[in-house]
Amino acid sequence: MQQNNPTFSIVIIGFNTSNELDQLLKSINQVQYDTKNLEVIYIDDGSADLSLQIFNNYDLRFQKKSFGFTQNKGRVFATQKGIEFAKNEWVLFIQSNMKINFNILQSYAKAIIKSEGVAFGGIIDYQSSDLQFTKYLNNIGRGIKQYKQYETIQYRHLLFGNAVIKKSIFDEISLNCQLKYYGGEELEFAFRLNQKYPNKIISCIDAKTTRINHPPLIKHYKRLIEFGKYNFPLLNKELQQTIIKYQLFIIWKNYLKWPIIILNKILLNLYYIGIKPLIVIKLILFTSLLRGYYSKAS
Prior knowledge:
By secondary structure, the protein is α/β, with parallel strands linked by helices. It has helices at 18-29, 51-57, 75-85, 104-114, 131-137, 169-172, 185-196, 217-231, 237-243, 248-251, 253-272, 278-297, and strands at residues 8-14, 38-44, 63-68, 90-95, 98-100, 119-126, 163-166, 201-211. The longest helix is centred in the last third of the chain and has 20 residues, at 253-272.
């Protein structure tokens, strides 16, 4: 059984999100938790705006620490630095372009006490100017929203946009800093976590964050191309198969490269002119990842 008052380190990763960071800090100041059991850490990943200065000057009612890279190194390095700075028993990972609910730590504390989990995932609600993409992102069947309270979740649904992980876990399982581009570092870490501690990743649907100003799909697809090109090939085969279930897309990459690129561009054009059914969104995401992977594999 866990202690009655878990201690938390909130680790915030930020890059050029000064406007959103201000909203996040306001929401943190409204969090209901004992000040002696909470610290707030901001890791700036080489921002060109005033993000680091905004954090350092903000009148936060909790103990705070910060660190700024002189140049952009990637989210995995920033996350690792935040882990190194964290001193408390549990680490809550969020990003600077988010807001958190006032009761988020109370919810996670209750989950820690009531279960034997070593990691907990909460709900992320998304806001975007792209209303159809927002509807897809907030679908009840995606991520933590499909689970009941304190239910064991699949490792692939543990997202660092809203996750609490026991700090001591990182002494045993480190982040893979080879994954220095967009995507996959959470999945790869959660996969190894689940191998060592099966059925210890738990849902906490009362713990909620809101992602502010998520890019529209017409911009977000470029991130998936980056993921497919750089980080996806570094994942082990089992993880790759959870993302691309039909291995013919891997085996026949030399034959499918140009059909996939052409299909991806057609789908993007359809979306751009307003043809936005769910199947088009899913196919854009899938073909964007393949487009990136094929560009690396060629």
